[in-house]
Automatic annotation (TrEMBL):
Presence of the UniProt keyword Lipid metabolism in the record: no
Protein name, UniProt field: Aminotransferase class V-fold PLP-dependent enzyme
Domain Aminotransferase class V: start-end pairs: 12-269
InterPro entries: Aminotrans_V_dom, Aminotrans_V_PyrdxlP_BS, PyrdxlP-dep_Trfase, PyrdxlP-dep_Trfase_major, PyrdxlP-dep_Trfase_small
Transmembrane segments: none
Pfam hit, one: Aminotran_5
Length: 284
């Protein structure tokens, strides 16, 4: 297996640039396209539907999408996006129990059998307790992995019902509005030229805001110190992430702020004010 990394734009990204990055990377030898719907590093939201419909499907390539952060944050329609596999966490934005998640498999692998018709078998559910019993059907095979934690799965289904009741479109709109507000306040406090790695454009933004207020954005220790003091002195818990803006560029670091359904505008105002106060203290 040869793994080809796709370099996606970080700063100044456009929907077309993401689509082009994948279109330019595939070849007749490509067996699968794997990518995050929302990257955990910067919170960029990739145009999944266009990548599937304009790059994957016309070239007969199956897609496996990591939607760890998308489940529960944005409204999703797997049939509409036309992916083959979609995996996501139950315990992040969906607020379900730990160690739960979802896996969408398109049409019981029907299309995978077409795409990989050069192989007699296309799928081995190796961690399933029912791997040897295909007559149970794929869904049961994939769900039966040792002794089941049935209450946790039930609780995840209940959390999903609650999200449906509130309305996933309303949840998405709310989370995105808080995230846009967060980016706006960061620019107001730290200046227009502050580097916010997360896109702030319709369709490309998410509930994650990654930015670095310091001049030297390669200084990991400085940012960790900032993150720890923000937690200890102000009570705000954020994490740091690291990434390369270009594949051969230096590693850069960002603070990553999540604006969740259970936050409100005062929380956003609070975290930005706290970050600005701490930043002023550390740079004075
Ligand atoms: C993009 C991405 N994929 C996968 C995972 C792992 O998710 P889980 O904790 O559900 O195994 C994470 C967790 O942070 C993530 O950010």
């Amino acid at each position: 297996v040869t793994l080809t990394k796709v370099e996606i734009p970080v700063l100044g990204a456009t929907e077309q640039a993401y689509v082009d990055a994948f279109a330019n990377a595939v070849s007749p030898a490509t067996r699968m396209i794997v990518f995050s719907h929302i990257t955990y590093k910067t919170g960029a939201r990739l145009p999944v539907k266009r990548i599937c419909q304009e790059v994957a499907v016309p070239n007969g390539i199956p897609t496996l999408i990591d939607g760890a952060h998308a489940i529960g944050m944005i409204e999703l329609d797997f049939h509409d996006m036309d992916c083959d596999f979609y995996a996501g966490s139950g315990h992040k934005w969906q607020c379900g129990p730990g160690a739960t998640g979802i896996l969408y498999v398109r049409d019981n692998l029907g299309r995978l059998r077409d795409y990989w018709s050069d192989r007699a078998e296309v799928f081995w559910p190796i961690n399933s307790s029912l791997a040897e019993y295909p007559f149970f059907g794929l869904q049961l095979q994939l769900q039966y992995v040792g002794n089941d934690n049935y209450p946790a799965k039930r609780a995840l289904a209940d959390a999903c019902d609650m999200w449906d009741e509130i309305g996933r479109d309303r949840i998405e709109a709310y989370v995105l509005s808080l995230s846009a507000y967060c980016k706006q306040l960061i620019r107001q406090a730290f200046g227009e030229s502050t580097v916010i790695y997360s896109p702030d454009a319709p369709g490309l933004s998410s509930g994650l805001t990654a930015f670095n207020p310091f001049d030297d954005r390669t200084d990991a220790e400085l940012l960790k110190q900032f993150r720890d003091r923000l937690r200890e002195e102000y009570g705000f818990v954020v994490r740091t992430t690291d990434f390369h803006v270009t594949l051969d560029g230096p590693e850069e670091h960002a603070l990553r702020i999540s604006t969740h359904l259970f936050h409100d505008e005062r929380d956003v105002e609070g975290v930005v004010a706290a970050m600005y106060s701490l930043f002023s203290d550390m740079t004075s």
